[in-house]
Amino acid sequence: MTFNILFNNVRGEKGYQTLWGFSCYIPELNLLFDTGSNGRFLLKNAKRMGIDFKKVKYLFISHSHWDHIGGIDTVIEENPNITIFVPSSLSKHLIKDLKTLAKEVIIINDKFSEILPNVYTTGIMPPIEEQSMAINTPNGLIIITGCGHSGIINIQNRIKENLNKEIYYILGGFHLLRSSNEEIEKVIQNLDTKFISPTHCTGEKAIKMIKTKFQDNFIKAGVGNIINLEI
To answer: Which CATH class is domain 2-228?
Structure first.
Protein backbone atom coordinates (compact mmCIF):
# COMPACT_ATOMS: atom_id res chain seq x y z
CA MET A 1 0.00 0.00 0.00
CA THR A 2 1.25 3.45 -0.91
CA PHE A 3 1.06 6.71 1.01
CA ASN A 4 1.91 9.93 -0.85
CA ILE A 5 2.66 12.75 1.58
CA LEU A 6 1.23 15.80 -0.17
CA PHE A 7 1.31 18.37 2.62
CA ASN A 8 3.46 18.64 5.70
CA ASN A 9 5.52 21.01 7.79
CA VAL A 10 8.15 18.26 7.96
CA ARG A 11 10.53 18.45 5.03
CA GLY A 12 10.86 15.50 2.69
CA GLU A 13 11.82 15.62 -0.98
CA LYS A 14 13.27 18.73 -2.65
CA GLY A 15 10.95 20.81 -4.77
CA TYR A 16 7.87 20.46 -2.56
CA GLN A 17 6.29 23.34 -0.66
CA THR A 18 6.51 22.94 3.11
CA LEU A 19 3.78 24.58 5.22
CA TRP A 20 2.11 23.78 8.53
CA GLY A 21 -0.49 21.06 8.12
CA PHE A 22 -0.94 17.52 6.85
CA SER A 23 -2.38 15.63 3.91
CA CYS A 24 -1.67 12.29 2.29
CA TYR A 25 -3.09 10.34 -0.62
CA ILE A 26 -3.65 6.58 -0.71
CA PRO A 27 -3.92 5.50 -4.36
CA GLU A 28 -5.17 1.98 -3.61
CA LEU A 29 -8.22 3.52 -1.93
CA ASN A 30 -8.39 6.55 -4.21
CA LEU A 31 -8.67 8.49 -0.96
CA LEU A 32 -7.24 11.82 0.17
CA PHE A 33 -6.71 12.18 3.93
CA ASP A 34 -7.02 15.83 5.03
CA THR A 35 -6.10 18.81 2.87
CA GLY A 36 -3.39 20.77 4.68
CA SER A 37 -3.67 24.49 5.31
CA ASN A 38 -3.31 25.86 1.78
CA GLY A 39 -5.13 24.54 -1.28
CA ARG A 40 -2.85 26.18 -3.82
CA PHE A 41 0.24 24.46 -2.48
CA LEU A 42 -1.62 21.19 -1.89
CA LEU A 43 -2.53 21.16 -5.58
CA LYS A 44 0.98 22.15 -6.62
CA ASN A 45 2.52 19.34 -4.57
CA ALA A 46 -0.03 16.83 -5.89
CA LYS A 47 0.68 17.74 -9.50
CA ARG A 48 4.42 17.44 -8.91
CA MET A 49 3.79 13.92 -7.59
CA GLY A 50 1.61 13.07 -10.57
CA ILE A 51 -1.67 12.90 -8.64
CA ASP A 52 -4.80 14.14 -10.41
CA PHE A 53 -7.46 15.33 -7.96
CA LYS A 54 -10.08 14.93 -10.69
CA LYS A 55 -9.74 11.17 -10.24
CA VAL A 56 -9.96 11.10 -6.43
CA LYS A 57 -13.14 9.45 -5.14
CA TYR A 58 -12.96 10.06 -1.40
CA LEU A 59 -11.85 12.78 1.00
CA PHE A 60 -11.47 11.99 4.71
CA ILE A 61 -11.36 15.00 7.05
CA SER A 62 -9.94 14.23 10.50
CA HIS A 63 -11.00 17.40 12.33
CA SER A 64 -11.95 21.03 11.97
CA HIS A 65 -8.60 22.76 12.52
CA TRP A 66 -7.45 25.06 9.74
CA ASP A 67 -4.26 23.13 8.99
CA HIS A 68 -6.31 20.11 7.94
CA ILE A 69 -9.22 21.70 6.07
CA GLY A 70 -7.54 24.65 4.34
CA GLY A 71 -7.48 22.93 0.96
CA ILE A 72 -11.07 21.65 0.86
CA ASP A 73 -12.26 24.31 -1.58
CA THR A 74 -9.39 23.59 -3.96
CA VAL A 75 -10.04 19.85 -3.91
CA ILE A 76 -13.76 20.33 -4.63
CA GLU A 77 -13.06 22.87 -7.35
CA GLU A 78 -10.85 20.28 -9.03
CA ASN A 79 -13.35 17.49 -8.43
CA PRO A 80 -16.95 18.17 -7.29
CA ASN A 81 -17.75 14.49 -7.91
CA ILE A 82 -16.21 13.44 -4.60
CA THR A 83 -17.51 11.82 -1.41
CA ILE A 84 -16.37 13.51 1.81
CA PHE A 85 -16.28 11.92 5.26
CA VAL A 86 -16.47 14.72 7.81
CA PRO A 87 -16.67 14.71 11.62
CA SER A 88 -19.93 16.03 13.04
CA SER A 89 -17.81 18.57 14.95
CA LEU A 90 -17.17 20.45 11.70
CA SER A 91 -19.06 23.74 11.43
CA LYS A 92 -22.71 23.10 10.56
CA HIS A 93 -22.52 25.96 8.10
CA LEU A 94 -19.49 24.44 6.39
CA ILE A 95 -21.16 21.03 6.23
CA LYS A 96 -24.24 22.65 4.67
CA ASP A 97 -22.07 24.35 2.05
CA LEU A 98 -20.11 21.17 1.31
CA LYS A 99 -23.37 19.32 0.63
CA THR A 100 -24.11 21.78 -2.19
CA LEU A 101 -20.59 21.54 -3.63
CA ALA A 102 -19.63 17.86 -3.44
CA LYS A 103 -21.23 14.65 -4.65
CA GLU A 104 -21.86 13.36 -1.14
CA VAL A 105 -21.08 14.33 2.45
CA ILE A 106 -21.10 11.58 5.06
CA ILE A 107 -21.19 12.86 8.64
CA ILE A 108 -19.27 10.81 11.20
CA ASN A 109 -20.48 10.67 14.80
CA ASP A 110 -18.81 9.03 17.80
CA LYS A 111 -19.32 5.42 16.65
CA PHE A 112 -16.51 3.21 15.36
CA SER A 113 -17.67 2.13 11.91
CA GLU A 114 -16.67 0.79 8.51
CA ILE A 115 -16.84 3.50 5.85
CA LEU A 116 -15.38 1.55 2.91
CA PRO A 117 -14.46 -2.13 2.55
CA ASN A 118 -11.74 -2.77 5.19
CA VAL A 119 -11.54 0.98 5.96
CA TYR A 120 -12.79 2.27 9.30
CA THR A 121 -13.27 5.47 11.24
CA THR A 122 -12.66 5.56 14.97
CA GLY A 123 -15.60 7.89 15.22
CA ILE A 124 -14.99 11.29 16.74
CA MET A 125 -12.98 11.17 19.96
CA PRO A 126 -12.55 13.87 22.64
CA PRO A 127 -11.32 16.41 23.48
CA ILE A 128 -11.82 18.13 20.11
CA GLU A 129 -13.90 15.43 18.38
CA GLU A 130 -11.32 14.21 15.90
CA GLN A 131 -11.66 11.03 13.85
CA SER A 132 -8.77 8.80 12.78
CA MET A 133 -8.72 6.11 10.13
CA ALA A 134 -7.86 2.41 10.21
CA ILE A 135 -7.21 0.09 7.28
CA ASN A 136 -7.41 -3.68 7.69
CA THR A 137 -4.68 -5.44 5.68
CA PRO A 138 -3.37 -9.03 5.62
CA ASN A 139 -0.27 -7.92 7.55
CA GLY A 140 -2.21 -6.05 10.22
CA LEU A 141 -3.90 -2.73 10.85
CA ILE A 142 -2.75 0.58 9.43
CA ILE A 143 -3.65 3.73 11.41
CA ILE A 144 -3.65 7.27 10.02
CA THR A 145 -4.12 10.29 12.26
CA GLY A 146 -4.45 14.00 11.56
CA CYS A 147 -3.16 15.48 14.81
CA GLY A 148 -3.95 12.72 17.27
CA HIS A 149 -5.44 15.19 19.77
CA SER A 150 -7.15 12.27 21.50
CA GLY A 151 -3.77 10.71 22.25
CA ILE A 152 -2.11 8.27 19.88
CA ILE A 153 -2.26 5.48 22.47
CA ASN A 154 -5.99 6.04 23.02
CA ILE A 155 -6.52 5.94 19.25
CA GLN A 156 -4.36 2.85 18.88
CA ASN A 157 -6.21 1.03 21.67
CA ARG A 158 -9.67 1.97 20.39
CA ILE A 159 -8.85 0.52 16.97
CA LYS A 160 -7.33 -2.67 18.40
CA GLU A 161 -10.33 -3.21 20.68
CA ASN A 162 -12.78 -2.89 17.79
CA LEU A 163 -10.91 -4.89 15.16
CA ASN A 164 -9.06 -7.36 17.41
CA LYS A 165 -5.94 -7.40 15.24
CA GLU A 166 -2.30 -6.38 15.57
CA ILE A 167 -1.13 -3.00 14.28
CA TYR A 168 1.28 -2.95 11.36
CA TYR A 169 1.86 0.75 10.69
CA ILE A 170 0.97 4.14 12.19
CA LEU A 171 1.24 7.38 10.18
CA GLY A 172 0.40 10.96 11.11
CA GLY A 173 0.52 13.61 13.78
CA PHE A 174 0.85 12.49 17.40
CA HIS A 175 0.41 15.94 19.01
CA LEU A 176 3.54 15.70 21.16
CA LEU A 177 4.99 19.05 20.15
CA ARG A 178 4.82 20.54 23.65
CA SER A 179 5.22 17.32 25.62
CA SER A 180 8.05 16.68 28.07
CA ASN A 181 10.66 13.97 27.57
CA GLU A 182 8.92 11.89 30.22
CA GLU A 183 5.54 12.22 28.54
CA ILE A 184 7.01 11.31 25.15
CA GLU A 185 8.85 8.33 26.58
CA LYS A 186 5.63 7.05 28.15
CA VAL A 187 3.91 7.23 24.76
CA ILE A 188 6.80 5.44 23.06
CA GLN A 189 6.71 2.60 25.59
CA ASN A 190 3.01 2.04 24.83
CA LEU A 191 3.18 2.20 21.04
CA ASP A 192 2.29 -1.21 19.67
CA THR A 193 3.15 -1.24 15.96
CA LYS A 194 5.81 -2.69 13.67
CA PHE A 195 6.38 0.37 11.47
CA ILE A 196 5.81 4.01 12.30
CA SER A 197 5.87 7.47 10.70
CA PRO A 198 5.34 10.26 13.24
CA THR A 199 5.05 13.62 11.50
CA HIS A 200 3.36 17.06 11.46
CA CYS A 201 2.53 18.08 15.08
CA THR A 202 4.52 15.26 16.67
CA GLY A 203 7.41 17.71 17.00
CA GLU A 204 11.09 17.33 16.17
CA LYS A 205 12.09 16.14 19.63
CA ALA A 206 9.45 13.40 19.77
CA ILE A 207 10.17 12.33 16.18
CA LYS A 208 13.85 11.88 17.04
CA MET A 209 13.02 9.90 20.17
CA ILE A 210 10.63 7.63 18.28
CA LYS A 211 13.21 7.13 15.54
CA THR A 212 15.77 6.06 18.15
CA LYS A 213 13.30 3.51 19.52
CA PHE A 214 12.11 2.05 16.21
CA GLN A 215 15.39 2.37 14.26
CA ASP A 216 14.98 0.64 10.86
CA ASN A 217 11.22 0.41 11.33
CA PHE A 218 10.97 4.20 11.46
CA ILE A 219 9.80 5.57 8.09
CA LYS A 220 10.23 9.26 7.29
CA ALA A 221 7.04 10.97 6.16
CA GLY A 222 8.00 14.45 5.03
CA VAL A 223 6.25 16.31 2.22
CA GLY A 224 7.01 14.68 -1.11
CA ASN A 225 7.90 11.31 0.43
CA ILE A 226 6.24 8.22 -1.03
CA ILE A 227 5.85 5.35 1.43
CA ASN A 228 5.41 1.86 0.03
CA LEU A 229 4.41 -0.91 2.44
CA GLU A 230 4.08 -4.59 1.65
CA ILE A 231 0.68 -5.81 2.81
So the answer is: alpha beta
